[in-house]
UniProtKB/TrEMBL annotation:
It is an enzyme of class 3 (hydrolase). The keyword Thylakoid does not apply. The lineage of its organism: Bacteria, Pseudomonadati, Bacteroidota, Flavobacteriia, Flavobacteriales. It comes from the Bacteria. GO terms for molecular function: metal ion binding; metallodipeptidase activity. GO terms for biological process: proteolysis. Keywords: Cobalt, Hydrolase, Metal-binding, Metalloprotease, Protease, Zinc. This is Cytosol non-specific dipeptidase. InterPro entries: Peptidase_M20 (IPR002933), Peptidase_M20_dimer (IPR011650), Peptidase_M20C (IPR001160).
């Protein structure tokens, strides 16, 4: 299907996107895409280098007549979120993304697409390669590891960048201009438990929660989507309370920035209580499905008999764990009082792994207000410590404070209205953009974020609008022609 993708307009962008998606580029494993980008910049004869953490910088001189305009730093991240459906056979470490066209959308076959932030990267590559587009001096900044720690942006030292304006191409709705974002912090809880032999006279079952929508734990957190970890915990809690259900293992979710779509648990129940348990399981499942019927129409909650495991959690630890996970806040915590309809603080209970005597829980807390972020993180820490887990807070990164008086914002607003005959929406978002981090070492850099429409980011439903990419490209070319001196 890559041939059909390459024929889409603008071909310059789609060809670069196809080239990029042929290179495996998971977060923290970006060696191949870094080499790919270094080779690309050097092949064009431009100043190209890698900083000490792995970010790639490429500089292109201004075209004739634009030499006096401010240098523009174009910024996108090289890594992508790796998620796939359970029934999709795919190796992200060795395979390129398999893309398909569906009406006005480009998506992948059962995996994430990498449009976040591959469309931004491809657009910058197309601008660097072009010999016909008018523009001021360009500085391309390709950061690494945005999705799992923002270590590329954090590691970029002051004095490296030369641009006076930064265009971050990582916003996912084409009628919005972003001027602010949330910061974030990772909460990791780890514990140990004593295993007990699976009780005699029990039957074992595998519980599955799957078919959920999933999505971006920042951009989609307000949509009322189901969280597979919380749904599974609710069922386990009810089963343990009424039937003394015993847990052997739980495996739910994956990445912190992805709303969990699937969870599986292996449990054991007394033979004498099986029929009643099965009836109640159906009632509990139907109740949850009814509650989430609008946002999760394809959710499946199933129960099937399983091979009897050798061991289960001791009941005391199990009880504490289920209560802690029930207590752990998931979803929107507070809405912003300063900006209408903006989520201020949220949490995603992203990962729950229980097996072999070990407990691992991973959350990502986001907020545009640092004190609120720490408040919620402390609440989560308290809940997990009450379950005898050791809790660490890490990966703390700042938000990006909105600047409504930004000069480049005025340029984008004026050009958007001129080109598209309507006003753009000037917003702040609940996702984590790199602008706030970059602004720490570059406080005078005038920053803005925009991009094409991308739906379902961080899930196998990720897709990018073809017509929106055309709009985004047109807007970008117009912005570059109107950069001030």
């Amino acid at each position: 299907m890559s041939k059909e993708i390459r024929q889409l307009e603008p071909k310059a962008v789609w060809n670069k996107f196809a080239d990029l998606n042929a290179v495996p580029r998971p977060s923290k494993k970006e060696a191949r895409v870094i080499a790919f980008m270094l080779d690309f910049g050097k092949s064009l004869g431009f100043e190209t280098f890698k900083d000490e953490v792995g970010n790639v910088i490429i500089r292109k001189p201004a075209t004739k007549g634009f030499e006096k305009r401010k240098m523009v730093t174009l910024q996108s991240h090289l890594d992508m979120v790796h998620q796939k459906n359970n029934d999709t056979v795919f190796d992200f470490d060795t395979q390129g993304i398999e893309m398909v066209i569906a009406d006005d959308w480009v998506k992948a076959k059962g995996t994430t697409l990498g449009a976040d932030n591959g469309m931004g990267v491809a657009t910058i590559m197309a601008l660097l390669e072009s010999t016909t587009i008018d523009h001021p001096a360009l500085e391309a900044l390709f950061t690494i590891d945005e999705e799992t720690g923002m270590t590329g942006a954090m590691g970029l030292k002051g004095g490296v960048l030369k641009g006076g304006i930064l265009l971050n191409l990582d916003t996912e709705e084409d009628d919005k201009i972003d001027i602010g974002c949330a910061g974030g912090i990772d909460i990791t809880a780890k514990g140990k438990y004593k295993e007990r032999s699976t009780p005699m006279g029990t039957v074992s079952f595998e519980l599955n929660v799957k078919g959920l929508t999933g999505g971006h734990s920042g951009m989609d957190i307000h949509k009322g989507l189901g969280n597979a970890n919380k749904i599974m915990n609710r069922i386990l809690f009810l089963g343990a309370d009424k039937y003394k259900l015993r847990i052997s293992s739980i495996n739910g979710g994956s990445l912190r920035n992805a709303i969990p779509r699937e969870s599986v648990a292996v449990v054991s129940v007394k033979k004498t209580r099986i029929k009643d348990f099965e009836k109640d399981f159906e009632v509990w499942s139907n109740t949850i499905k009814e509650e989430l019927c609008v946002t999760e129409p394809d959710m499946v909650i199933s129960l099937s008999e399983a091979k009897k495991p050798k061991s289960v959690m001791n009941f005391k630890t199990q009880s504490k764990l289920l209560k802690a996970l029930y207590t752990a806040h998931n979803g929107v915590y507070t809405m912003s009082a300063a900006i209408d309809d903006l989520v201020e603080t949220s949490n995603n209970v992203a990962r729950v792994l229980v097996e072999g005597g070990k407990i691992h829980i991973g959350c990502l807390t986001r907020s545009s207000v640092n004190s609120s972020k720490i408040d919620l993180a402390s609440a989560l820490q308290s809940a997990f410590e009450l379950a005898d887990c050791k809790v660490t807070l890490s990966g703390d990164y700042p938000g990006w404070n909105p600047n409504p008086n930004s000069a480049i914002l005025e340029v984008l607003k004026a050009q958007y209205k001129k080109v598209f005959k309507e006003e753009p929406k000037v917003v702040a978002c609940h996702a984590g953009l790199e602008c706030g981090i970059l602004g720490q070492n570059y406080p005078d850099l005038d920053m803005i974020s925009y991009g094409p429409t991308i739906k379902g980011a961080h899930s196998p439903d990720e897709r990018v609008s073809i017509s929106s990419v055309q709009k985004f490209w047109k807007f970008t070319l117009d912005i570059l022609k109107n950069i001030p001196e």
